[in-house]
Amino acid sequence: MSAMLLVTAIFAAVVYSRLRQPGVIGWAALMYLCLFIRYLWTRPYLDAPLRAAKDPHWLPVYLVLQFLNGLGWGLTPWMFIHPSDPSLIVFIFLVIGGLIGGSTAAAASVKSIYFAFALPLMVLSTVALAVQPELVYRVCSVFTVLFMLATTRFVQRFHNVLTESFTMRLEKLALVDKLAQQVTLVEAASHEKSRFMAAASHDLRQPLQAIALFTAALEQALQSTTHHLTASRLQMSVHALGTSLDTMLDISQLDVGLVRQEIRPVAVTSVFHALDNVFQPQAIEQGLELRIRASKLWVASDPQLLERLLANLVSNALKYTAAGGVLVTARRRGERVWVEVRDTGIGIPPEDHERIFDEFFQLDNPGRDRHKGLGIGLSIVRRLSRLLEHPVSVSGRPGRGSCFRVSLPPVSARALAVAEAGPRRRAEWLPRRVLLLDNETDILEAVTVFLKSFGITVVGVTQVAAARAALAQAQGEPGFDLLMCDYRLSAGEDGLQFLLDMRQCMPSLRLLMMTGETVHEHLPRIRHSGIPVLHKPVKPDALLDALCALGPAAAPTTADPPPMSMQNLGGSQGA
Predict the structure, then answer these.
(1) How far apart are CA 216 and CA 222, in angstroms?
(2) Distances (CA, A) of 563 to 31, 50, 546, 550
(3) Cα separations (Å) of 13 from 47, 94, 158, 360, 494?
(4) What angle do the packed helices 464-473 and 495-505 form, to 10 degrees?
(5) If 0-12 CB within 10 Å is exposed, 13-18 middle and 19+ buried, where does residue 132 land?
(6) Spatial separation of the C-alpha atoms in residues 130 and 124, rounded to whole Å
(7) pLDDT tens for residues 293-339?
(8) How many angstroms separate the CA atoms of 196 and 200, rounded?
(9) Phi and psi for 395 in degrees, rounded to 5?
(10) Other Cβ atoms closer than 10 A to 215
């Protein structure tokens, strides 16, 4: 409309300067009045397009206003053409042609609006030329008709393009809306799955923790007997069971970023020794040869996560090897250390080298035989390799076995010297009296039996009120050196809040949380509390290391306590 105001003013000024007719001023006044009425009618549409568009009277009235606008311009040749002034005629028709061309872009989205303005303008202009006595004007009228047909065709095509574009946009918005709904459903399903896995994990970790501690206490008691080897093997089996439990949760834990790596110097031989203890019996049972070559190399990694990564590779190699064996080696290659797991199994087609890292993809298992696993081991390997920044590559062909290579950074000489010195656990760093709060009686008994084997007095309670009473009663006696508590207690009590309260009331009391909680919403709260956390099932050695790191109230200060291990039986849980 601003352009129309400007064009009208310029047109009226030029024509009036040539003709000096008062009718030019009257025509301009009527055109401005028509534009003002059109502005008043258009303003509600600009303020609320959807509401105005629903008004059945809005478009017809707007078409009438556009028709009057086109009619006013169409009458200009009849009103202002002067045969003796060809330059004025040229000017008038140039303005008319410009108005028609401009309306093709401005009004093509609604063809009726375009025709309401352009049709009276073009018809009246053409007839005005055709009635002139000179031949040149009649020829111009023919060209005007051709111009009218061309612009009408252009408007039709332009309208189709706009309609298709708008339709595609609406379809795209509909697809985006459907995709957003699907994402919401998937997130809700993932959340429910995580809640189920967390609940199942918590319920399974409790008895497994009790089994691990009872086994450790049994191993300690049978240390000098002939049954010590049996107890040690039982402990290794419990370790393997805990690792299997953690594998069930690895995918969700890794995807949401709850697993935290603790990079430090790691002796490759120590990891290889753990792999040999776990997989050598399986290899013997399958009639395979498992060779794990010792190495003096050290790498920068998280020992538990690296062990889990390699364990999945070795397990996968044994699973798909029917004859021959598996070879695990480590060697220095330039600025990296290569750990390779080679097998003489079925091999992997080149086109499947990437697919084998997808969830639930298995070679040579079309019937989904559960005895061959779930097909998530290598997907965990890929996630762990990304987390640790240890690239994993694979090579091999069908019938010729396969080779998985993990590339790790070596450790500098200075870091190696510190690592080889290592922390030493000292008996005087262990607490003398421990108050244990846990709603599982099996855990209470297991921890009590285990810690008593190291001369630690343990008082176990199952409720917060009993724990408060025990702490109050101990004020006049030799007090507790350590309060150890679970997160989820009976009757909905909050173990973390109890520990935070005790940190304010009894600043000298050491605090430790030992929990099987894996709900994603709760873990950040635990982590940000600043209270040391062990995630069940906990290795007995890891529990002793944690107690040593905390120390008793009167712990000696001549040496720094060892760093606390926050690793569970299967690896880090991001405490």
Answers:
(1) 10
(2) 88, 67, 8, 9
(3) 34, 15, 34, 80, 85
(4) 20
(5) middle
(6) 10
(7) 888 889 999 888 899 889 989 988 888 888 889 999 999 988 899 99
(8) 6
(9) -145, 160
(10) 21
